[in-house]
């Protein structure tokens, strides 16, 4: 009963807001409706409306899926400091990170679904009543890890928030255990997604042991960069107060991950091009063009330029600490990695085909519209979740008579007390 | 900023504006989608009962013989209304002690592409957009590099061209098929007679199998297949050449509807040069066994350990 009231109260908060809030929701609704109607068209005529073909049988949808798995996994970069190391700054925003993970995993599932030729048969993809080719098919693994990750990221914050709503303390041990689990789970969603590609020995460009580690590096680069941007926006529109320490922590993670990513890229380039064999054809097509066809060449070089540019901005202390440059660096890193993992990884794996044909791919507008619709749904879900989250954190949902300023003060006081208590705890440990 | 706005006087008007605004956003989105007419492509007139029946239809291997019979009748009704001809859907089972294999003599092959024509006449593939199971590569003599091959050599030109040889490729019916491993819903599997088949009513169209296939054998129905009535082959098999629908995968089935009844695949019959040898690998007196035992044979991409049951040889 209480749980139902909790949900009703949350929904009420989600559906209240000022004009700016509703304008934002309307913008999202526009994209969702555009994507939805385009998807109806795709259901009617089939996947021909996309740029995909027998030669390049996965395209923009799977590219975005791959990118978003990384964003989802990156929430772990807040979960670890918050729940494992009890970093108070991370704790303040960890729920936002988990909310982002929920939205991102949801978008991942949607991208896989819109890519299906027979969405009406999606129920076949279940152990019951469908038929699950587990453990042999990597797509079944992806279904398991993604839904598990979605569940974990709904359950942990949900449990914490529900307790706060009721004014009770949550079970720390339980949350710690769940956090450890979700830590490994985050790694697994990206590893499994990498294996989805790397398991295809027919596609030498993908069949590399480096794919999984590189996916992780790019995830922990683009994901936190994305989170920094989302946080900055929320800070700007005053939806949330974000401490600068969290931003600092995340920006260092972005910088280090980008370095690791670029090192692995260099290693790959060396192996592909030093003794260039037939296996290197895809890499040659991607970076230099093959048979006079070079649609992806500008993409990949702009991606690398963006990546290197972002890295430079992040390595210089002055620019990293300057929020404008930091935001710029994050935008560059997100776009760079979005290209690198989509147009720069999924697509060239198909070119040339196993029979040596070089057939190019470009997404169609219809495809882009459906993808925008999926992003719209993700953004809407995130927006709707953020409202009650903030209200509960500030104690507004349990006590609607509180006004915002007082609530914020109360919240900050609670935080300070918790911090002081922790410090006292350390002192007694050091000096018993 | 107050947290709730319950106390605002013009709440009703605001709400109305909000709703109108959101409705406008949805409407503009619909316009921007550019979705055209709502006319549906020709799917035939399928009764509601049949639609429900085929929606809930189980995996081929989980259906009882009666359920398979019902599924076949549903299909026959659908084809009848869609193509205005009686299409017979059989369900030939694999024969005991049979393992099919194929061998192709590349010194005989002249690149006529008669096999391609024979195949598409037999197997009810979409015509324009053309869907073909066999791809004949025109190769430069002196090497085996697929990347320099030309699959699009014009059929108006005289073949064989000097300095070229021809390499037809279709599903190799791998003994260790990566496509079967990759399919998330077991919609494709290897039958006891070695033929790799697809249940077109179970496939979800994810294309995992196509990505896994090293021989580019799998072809997808990106839209409703276009099968003009005069090109329909009315003698079909459930797991092989019955007409397909959009959004599912298909490929060569060694003409299961023929080979399981003791006939040769259509491509073998169509080949005017006698380059194609098809038969039972378990029969020591078969021609294919003779080829394997006495000719220098090779298979494509053996390093991938897919164990194709499709060999090439030359005299
Ligand atoms: S050739 Fe391709 S489609 Fe045919 S069995 Fe082998 S992997 Fe599967
Ligand atoms: S396209 Fe069909 S047959 Fe191929 S892997 Fe997906 S469900 Fe299986």
TrEMBL record, chain A:
Primary site of residence: membrane
The entry's keywords: Cell membrane, Membrane, Transmembrane, Transmembrane helix
Source organism superkingdom: Bacteria
Subcellular location field: Cell membrane
Mode of membrane association: Multi-pass membrane protein
Keyword field contains Transmembrane helix: yes
InterPro entries cross-referenced by the UniProt entry: DsrP-like, NrfD-like
Key word Transport present: no
Annotated TM spans: 21-40, 60-86, 93-114, 134-162, 174-199, 211-234, 246-267, 296-316, 323-339, 368-386
A GO CC term attached to the entry: plasma membrane
Protein family: Belongs to the NrfD family.
Name by which UniProt lists this protein: Polysulfide reductase
Automatic annotation (TrEMBL), chain B:
UniProt keyword annotations, A-Z: 4Fe-4S, Iron, Iron-sulfur, Metal-binding
Gene3D superfamilies noted in UniProt: 3.30.70.20
Alphabetized SUPFAM superfamilies for the sequence: 4Fe-4S ferredoxins (SSF54862)
A Pfam family: Fer4_11
Cross-referenced InterPro entries: 4Fe4S_Fe-S-bd (IPR017896), 4Fe4S_Fe_S_CS (IPR017900), ET_IronSulfur_Cluster-Binding (IPR050954), TAT_signal (IPR006311)
Domain 4Fe-4S ferredoxin-type: 194-223
Molecular function via GO: 4 iron, 4 sulfur cluster binding; metal ion binding
Descriptive protein name: 4Fe-4S ferredoxin
Organism name: Candidatus Lambdaproteobacteria bacterium RIFOXYD2_FULL_50_16
